[in-house]
Write a structure and sequence with these properties.
Elements lengths: L4 E5 L2 E6 L2 E5 L3 H4 L2 H20 L8 H16 L4 E2 L8 E2 L4 H13 L4 H31 L1 H11 L7 E2 L2 E2 L10 H4 L2
Antiparallel strand pairs: 1-2, 2-3, 4-5, 6-7
Amino acid sequence: MHIVGSLVQGHRRLTYIRGSMSVSLVPEAERDSRGARRALVLVIALHLILLLLMLRDYFADNDLGYHISLARQYAENGVYWWDYLNWAPTGRPNLQGPALHYAIGFLGRLMGGDGWAYINAFSILAVGQWAAAVFTAVYFARRFGGDRAALFAAALLTPGGSSFSRRGRSTSSSKSATSGPSCSGL
């Protein structure tokens, strides 16, 4: 990265990097922290390992079941414009974007094409979405706030894996307002 120029305004430093501007709220000397980087790797790795270990026991609730059923219909029919399965008997237009459903359907077909294959495909992609969210937050937090901000961002997002259910019971310590019996699959 080639820094072209720098301007200090109050407590913020605006750095111009080849036509783009990076706003850092943290002084340059305080941005790097070897301990925060090590803790960041440890927090993300620990949560990723726990998520991967629970894939076999993943429990799909009502909403996830809906998306898994749409994915299976996409995999078996190619397109799925009218949803008779979830909105029987008359059906309704399928209003969901197809990208995630195609991905689940494709992976489910690769894994065998039975009902459990689609559930497992959904679980794998859910962990992938979690990883994408964590790494995106860490990237921008580190870019704008340094290593400690990246650790804080990861620590805020990584407990989200605890909202995955195991055998129908939520593993998170507190329930949200929408986690009643109709939403949590209990």
